[in-house]
Design goal:
There is one protein chain. The chain is of the alpha+beta class and 132 residues long. It is 23% helix and 34% strand. The chain is built from 2 helices and 5 strands. Strands 3-1-2-4-5 form a 5-stranded mixed β-sheet. A hairpin with a 2-residue loop joins strand 4 and strand 5. Helix 1 packs across helix 2. The relative contact order is 0.22.
Amino acid sequence: MYRLTVRDHVMVAHSLRGAVFGPAQGLHGATYVVDATFGRPELDEDGIVVDIGRAAEQLAAVLADLGYRNLDDEPAFAGKNTTTEFLAREIFDRLVAAIRAGRLGEGARGLVFVRITLTESPVAWASYEGSV
């Protein structure tokens, strides 16, 4: 399996409901390093997994819709804990929608999986991986 990863970051504010979150129940900021990994069994006709520029551009576009926002105020997230795991899935869904809409180019149609990893600190991260 061939893989290509692009990296960006996003800064958000949010609070998490439930005693399990301790002090994170209060409003706080988070800066995540976001890795988007694209995979396919064979390279495309140009010898690549996906166009790096387009992949980076689309990841940045997805993150721009989330960045510098208090996620508690976002109607799409009403009633949900915007945990690191939850956000990994949300970014995955938005990036796969971009792939299906052709925004990563025609060659991206051969992708079979995408993995989104959000690194919260040097010692903690979460991922979501699924089929395209």
